[in-house]
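Q: Convert this sequence to structure tokens.
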Amino acid sequence: MLDKLRNPFRKKRCHFCKMSTPYMRDYYDEHDNRVVVCEKCLEYAERRAFRRI
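A:
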């Protein structure tokens, strides 16, 4: 929470490859945490059974 207050304009990074691209998707992982995935890693997220928001 405090991290979001410090820098609200920070770019989101991919959960897997740590890259930042304009096309990002939100997913829930196996522990119901919200993660952001780039377009290159979408297939990997689907294979790992991440649920799409």
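The radius of gyration is 12 Å.
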